[in-house]
Write a structure and sequence with these properties.
Layout (H helix, E strand, L loop, with lengths): L17 H10 L7 H11 L19 H10 L25
Helix pairs in contact: 2-3
Length: 99
């Protein structure tokens, strides 16, 4: 008999909030991040810009990867950004805990 497992939390896509849903799905909690938090991160990344380059000017999300990385850092995590356009290198990962 298989042990009972915890159900997997999944947020469905709403508007252009893919980064918010991805973060909440990663942390398995609806409360992990809110849109207001991601908007605040956008403002902290570019405080003096009238039009913020890190999100949609309509205020409906479309956050860029810098917001996602900063949100993870705020929770004590980090992310590795691999650019497929650049030369491939091998990365040795040791002593890293994955979510």
């Amino acid at each position: 008999m298989l042990p009972e497992s915890t159900p997997i939390y999944h947020e469905k896509q709403s508007r252009e909030l893919c980064a918010l849903h991805a973060l909440n799905n990663l942390f398995q909690s609806k409360e992990a991040f809110k849109q207001m938090e991601l908007d605040a991160i956008c403002l902290s990344l570019s405080p003096n810009n009238y039009i913020n380059p890190h999100r949609s000017i309509l205020g409906i999300g479309n956050y860029d990867v810098n917001v996602l990385i900063a949100a993870l850092q705020n929770k004590g995590y980090s992310a590795f950004w691999f650019d497929k356009r650049k030369k491939k290198i091998f990365v040795i990962i040791s002593g890293i805990n994955f979510i």
